[in-house]
């Protein structure tokens, strides 16, 4: 792995940590708050591609595990990784990797609407389909109740999917994916 790739991964892990400074929106009926950090997951996949996108989220999870307060609300540590948010957090590298994989596949003919669709499928639906059942199991509620509760995330997550796609299209010329296609 090149130094430049490691720097990109570290920068995006830092970006996701900065997005954690935006105060969470707690929901009374679900123990997982609405956060801005899923925007960073989608950006990492769209902009960096599969390998660096997933690596940036693995690095982010390592920062959480060692106790740095990089999650929204200043949370961090092993307790968070075994709490109600665990499924969502551990789905981040998978989501970023799949978003990146599809972004790389369509890059020569990329369009904003295609990135929005990819972000919704993997950055919204996949994250919820992994996170909600894990949350339900940890909180001892039904998986169905967890999935229904996760519907509260959909409006904001769809907005984040659009924002990530628009930002990626604006920065397309400097994306590492663009560099790969030029070679």
From TrEMBL:
Key word Transmembrane present:
yes
Indicate where this protein resides in the cell: Cell membrane
Q: Which UniProt keywords apply?
A: Cell membrane, Membrane, Transmembrane, Transmembrane helix, Transport
Q: Does the keyword NAD apply?
A: no
What InterPro entries does the record point to?
BioY
Q: Which domain of life is it from?
A: Bacteria
Membrane-spanning residues:
30-48, 55-72, 78-103, 115-138, 144-167
- Gene3D superfamilies, per the entry: 1.10.1760.20
Q: How does it sit in the membrane?
A: Multi-pass membrane protein
Q: Which family does it belong to?
A: Belongs to the BioY family.
What is the protein's given name? Biotin transporter
What gene is this protein translated from? bioY
């Amino acid at each position: 792995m090149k130094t430049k790739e490691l720097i990109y991964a570290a920068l995006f892990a830092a970006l996701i940590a900065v997005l954690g400074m935006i105060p969470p929106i707690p929901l009374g009926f679900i123990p997982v708050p609405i956060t801005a950090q899923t925007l960073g997951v989608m950006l990492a996949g769209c902009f960096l591609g599969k390998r660096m996108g997933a690596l940036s989220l693995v690095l982010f999870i390592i920062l959480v595990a060692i106790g740095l307060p990089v999650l929204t609300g200043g949370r961090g540590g092993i307790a968070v990784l075994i709490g109600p948010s665990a499924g969502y957090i551990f789905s981040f590298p998978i989501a970023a990797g799949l978003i990146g994989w599809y972004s790389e596949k369509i890059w020569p003919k990329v369009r904003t609407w295609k990135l929005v669709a990819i972000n919704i499928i993997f950055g919204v639906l996949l994250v919820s389909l992994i996170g909600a059942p894990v949350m339900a199991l940890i909180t001892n509620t039904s998986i169905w109740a967890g999935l229904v509760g996760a519907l509260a995330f959909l409006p904001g997550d769809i907005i984040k999917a659009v924002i990530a796609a628009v930002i990626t299209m604006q920065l397309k010329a400097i994306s590492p994916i663009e560099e790969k296609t030029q070679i």
